[in-house]
Specification:
The chain is of the alpha+beta class and 100 residues long. Helix content is 56%, strand content 15%. The protein contains five helices and two strands.
């Protein structure tokens, strides 16, 4: 559930063209690293995911496969409704970690 919600945020915000750094100061670094590596491997994002002590993203964009995955996720109203509700109430961290 945590990785699915994080994947939703990444794909949703990439589609909108949002700067992802605004969202991830409160997410566990290992979780972010694993999520980006997994999404790159699954073909949902393009660009470079450079892993050293930090995770560096270079030219990251949503792919066609990522758009299709996002469309599939949007069929479940819990993702978008929960995401927007928690953004409005400053509880996005709780939503990602399943506490909201």
């Amino acid at each position: 559930m945590i990785k699915d919600r994080l994947k939703f945020i990444i794909l949703y915000e990439l589609k909108k063209g949002t700067v992802l750094a605004n969202f991830f100061g409160w997410i566990d670094t290992d979780l972010i690293k694993e999520s980006f590596i997994e999404m790159k491997k699954d073909g949902f994002i393009s660009g470079e995911v450079i892993v050293d002590d930090l995770v560096v993203l270079k030219d990251i964009e949503i792919t066609e496969e990522g758009r299709l995955e996002l469309e599939e996720m949007l069929k479940n109203p819990d993702y978008e409704e929960g995401y927007h509700l928690c953004c409005e109430n400053n509880r996005l961290k709780d939503w990602v970690y399943g506490k909201a």
